[in-house]
Each structure stands twice: as C-alpha cells, then as structure tokens.
Amino acid sequence: MVEIHPLPHPHPLHLCIPKKTEISINRIHTILHGIALLALFYYRITTLSQLIISPTPHLLPYLIIFVSEVVLSFLWLVHRPSKWRPLTRATYPDNLPKDDAELPPVDIFVCTVDPSKEPSLDVMNTVISAMALDYPPDKIAVYLSDDGGAPLTLAAMKEAWRFSVVWIPFCKKYRVINRCPDAYFSGADKSSGEVASDEFLADRKVIEDKYGEFKERLDANKETLGTSVSGDHPPIVKIINDATDNNSRSPDSNQKGMPLLVYVAREKRPSHPHHFKAGAINVLLRVSGVISNAPYFVVLDCDHYCNDTSAARQAMCFFFDPEISPKLAWVQYPQHFHNISPHDIYDGNLFYYWREWEGLDGIRGPTITGCNFFMRREAIYGIDEVPKDADLSLLRKYFGSSHELIKSTYRSYKPSISRDEGKVSDELQKEIQLVASCTYDDGTEWGNEVGSGYNSVVEDALNSLKLHRKGWISVWYDPKRPCFLGTCTTNLNDMLVQQTRWALGLLLLGVSRNSPAINLSSKMPIFQSMSYAGLTLDPLYVIPFYGLAIVPQLCLLHGVSLYPKVGDPFFFVFAFIFISSQLKHVQEVVSYGSPFITALYDLRVWMMKCGACYLYATLNAVLDRLGLQEANFSITSKVIDEEETKRYQDGVYDFRTSPQLLAPMCSLYIVNLVAFLVASVRIFEGEWGREMFAQAAIPWFGVTVNYHLLDGMLMRKDKGRISPAVTMLSVVICASILFLGSLFMFV
Prior knowledge:
single chain; about 750 residues; alpha/beta; Spore Coat Polysaccharide Biosynthesis Protein SpsA, Chain A; 8-stranded mixed beta sheet; 3-stranded mixed beta sheet; 13 strands
C-alpha cells in the first residue's frame, strides 16, 4: 500500500470557512432557549411538588408531560454541539501537483444486490461515470460488488466495458463535465465543457448511437438471463477487459489508458452469515487489496453516478494538506439526487442531516453517510492498532490467512497485475478466491477491529464512531456542483421503511456497549460525543411525541389544565420555547437555501418518523435487547413507478403503505382533531378561555401541520389516498385511546 507524504504547497488546496452569521444566531438561540428551559423546569418542579404534597388524581398526566419535556430537552441539548460552529469548505484542484504521477491511486467500490430492484442500466451508468473520472486512468480501479451473484449483472459489466472504451476517449477529447452517459444524452445537465464544432457533433452522434446499442444489448440480456439472484454460490471475481473476455471485444477498443474494471460476487452460503453491506465492503477491501491496493477508496451506491468529473481531485485537496492529512480518515460528500421534486414532501434531499453535518464538520468531522466518501485504506484497516513488531501469527489474527493480503498492508507492497493485460496468475487467483470466501472472516478481526463493522444495520455510524474514537478526523465537503447524484425515494412507503431501518440501527448502537452516551473516549471531545449521542438516540423522540400527542388532548377533553393560563408569566415561557424552536427551524431551512415551504415538509416528515418509524424502531430495539428479534437489512427499490412519480412531482402524498405504519399516525391525528373541535366549541362558547388556550394550541398545531392526513382520509378519491379500511382502523384505535386513557388517568 503506497503511502503519500504531502508537502507544503505555496497555494492553498482548500479553505475552511466558518459561517459567522449562522454561528452567532445559533449561539444566541442556544443561550436564550436554554434559559427558557430552565424556567420551564422550575415551573414544572414547583407544580409537581405541590401536587405530590396535596395528592390529586391528576398527578399521572403531569408526570407524563414532565418526562416528555425532560426527554425533549435532553435531545435538544445533545444536538447543540452540531450548531456551535458550522463550516463550509472550498477546494482548489488546480493547485494539486501538475504531474499526474504524483497523484495516489484510488479504488472505487460500487455496491449492488438485485437487478430487479436496481436496474442494470442505472448501475452501469454509475460504473461508467466512475471509470471516466478526470483522474489518471492507470490509477483508477472500479470494483462492482454484486451481492446477488446475478448473471445479468456480470453480462452488463461486459457491455459497460465495451461502451466505455469509446465513451471515455470521447469525454476526454471534448472535456465533457458530466460523464454519466444517461444524464449526458438526456440533456438533464445543461452544463457543458465541449465546443459544438462539426467534428464534435458528428462524434457525439456516433457515441449516442453506440449508447443506444448498449441499452439494447442490456435489454436483450435481461430477456435472456432474467433478473434472478443467488444466495448460494462460490466466489466469482473477474477482471473485465478485452484480454480476459474475447466475447466482449470491441473493434473500437483501446485497452491501454483504461481504468481497471473488476466484477466481484463474494461467496454466499445459506448457512453462513454474510453481514449485508458491511460484509460486501470488507470483501471489496480484501479483493482490491491484492489486485490494485490503492491507498484511498471511495464507496458509491449503485444509483449514485459521478456528476462532476473532478470529484477525486477535489477529495485529494484535503488528503494533500500537510496540516490535516496525517489524521484525516475520510472526506464525506453529501447525497444529492437528480429526481427531487420542487415539492420535497418526503425530505428526499436529506437536508436535515446535511445541516447537521455542516456543524459536525466544526468538531472533528461528520459521520460516514452510506456512500460518496473517500477514505484512507489504512484507517479502515486499523493499522494503527497493530503492533509494529507483530509476528505472522498476530497478523493472521488481524487480517486472515492470505499471505498476499498481509503483504499488501505494508507500504512497500506493489500489486503484481499488469493493467494493460489484466491477466492474473494462478497463485494470485487462489488468493483472490480465498479472500472472497464466506469463511475468511472466521477467527479474525474483520468486522471488529479491521474493516467495516458487523452486527449493525447502520455500519456507517459504527465505523465512524470507531475511527473518531481512535483520533481520526473527517471532513464534510458540499461543493456548489454536486459531485454525485443518486435516486431518492418517491413514495411514503420506501421513506418510512428506510427511516425505520436507520432508526433501529442507530438506537441499537445508542444502547449498546459502544454507546457514545456512556462509553466516552479521551480522543473525542465532549461536543463530538454529545453529537453522536444525539444521532443514535434520536428515536427516543417517540416518547415526547406520543406524550404530547395524547396526554394534553385527553386532559383538554376532561377540562384538566396542564399549562399556565394566558397572562401568567410562565405562559410566556412556554410560548417563547415553542415559537423560538419553530422560527429557528425555519431560519435553518431558509439559510441553507431551501424555500420556506420546506420547513413544513420537514416538520411533517419528522412527525411521521416519530409516529411510525421511531415507534417501531424502539419496540424492535427492546425485542432485540431481549433476544426476541434480530435486526435485518432491506434495500429500497430504484425501479421507477410512473404513477407514484407523478404524484411526487405534483407534491401529492402517496399513502399506499402498510397499515402498520399508517394507522398510528392517522389515529393520533383523529385524537387531536377531536380535542381541537371540542376545545374550539368550548372556547367559542366562553366556557374556556385564558385557562386552556395554551393546551388547545397543541392539537390545533398538530391538526394544521398534518392536514395532508385529513385530506388523504376524507377528501381524496385516487389510488394514493388512505384506504377506508385504514381510516376505520384508526377511528377504532382513537376510540380506544380516548376510552383507556380516560379510564387510567381520570378514574
């Protein structure tokens, strides 16, 4: 593994720019909001003391509200560090060494599983765009992990090679900026680096025709091979090029000057755990280690194509900085999406997370976020944990029995494969088969101290925590032109399922022995530990959400006041906390560049996550801790549904999801609607006024923000509405909540 020793450069490679206005606003808000919370707790504690001294049947509702406010305030507090020092960054790739020979090699990992959910055309566009990066081709190796072992995917790789040998020279000749063929020929990207000469137009027409033939061959392969996947197959590792596959030889091909392209289908056996994406990444690390062994690698999801050809060079601007490079483990790019609607009703942009990541960048860096990150290989290998005088037996305990892989961990190691010929010796082929086998991990530190961590559906957060605890730092980089573009979810079901999976994995991490809330590290500052605690414990929002969505409403129906009346000094404390938190959210959304309406969409998504995703994540986490259920992994479909896509683009919610996910949200909405209507009548009649105004504002807020649920239950008649069966089920659940809640709280 070749190590790069950056030298000081007379011109800056990158700039770190604190967002001074944001910093001032955030710190002032934190101080004022914190003081208001102290006043709130003074009110609650004194009120509860009086209730305990003078017993009352209304003590239980007060206790539930108090616990809800404590949890809500705790989660607000642990998220403050991410607001303390948000940063933006700029890079200057032109200041990198002019001689490409000085740039380090980069391995590119693309992961796919099932061609029926991840269409081969989309996956191959990602592969081709990665091969075409503006980077020395002899220093790029692209590895596709096909976890389904699908014959269709292997055939598609061969076709991708055939097309790439004409596509890449075309892109370089005319300096094409967006080198994803589908995006380029669809005209979705209006930016262009080429000059529209007659020669260019003629060449473009030729390449476009070849791309059409490429798509036709993919369709023909799909008809012939189908989309079947296998969970029981030996390891399959093939270097794709003309020399190794005569069937894919193209008359236009010029093998020299082409990146290395490798297909990897790790061994799968039903009786052996495969550890989902973490297992796939570890196999890619090992296979690439004995083939190309670049000191840096980047992980891409199969639908995230390279949108900016300079992505790798921009990342190197950080790794070449002598001040941060020795301790920099990874550079994280955001996930941006090409199919985002102007009405981002499912928060597909994930801007909530990216706003947090800007702040985390000010405290030693963000977490790994699934894909689009450039990482130092020796960091994920845990080289710093291996004793320098380790003997062969200890190295085998860490890295396994492959001698070639162990040798690759030394900086003096040089791969033996010729890129031009792409031939693999019999001895090396045996090593490749060994490191791609399903039993290679057994008895080693793979999945623990070495490679991507196992036993978690959010291996990214686990890996980040592990590396940050060792003293590594990371960088968040969000350039004006997105370096990678993917496909976001366009329906409610996929969003809820995805968020439930993330929430479950994070909560399990938050309550495990690795919990950042209790297992502190001397190499992580307290602000960073607090941020990790906030990230992993976010599902606990379910406690205050359900507490505040049910208890004040029940008390409202029974005329029991939980909040100070209008005119009481503490009324203004509660009003300030509520209004300041909402205004702060709007300010964050608008200052990030999003339209005002995005604040409403964000709030709706947060409430849907609390009502459904966090609820089931918490319940499943409890079952997992009791050994009654094991967390699993599922992939989100990338297949386009025209009908649901149209609704998404029009800003109309598609409620075709499981009743299990939908009924809790609808039930809570009906509870709040009933409470709001009753309160409105009584306030209008003059029966209530100043005493219950604050309490009546809670259901009013919930009903107003989540009007889309009422619309889906009663107004809409299309296929995407909430089904009558779910509506009736929600009415029954609502009636049960009102009856049982009244029975236990007020009898």
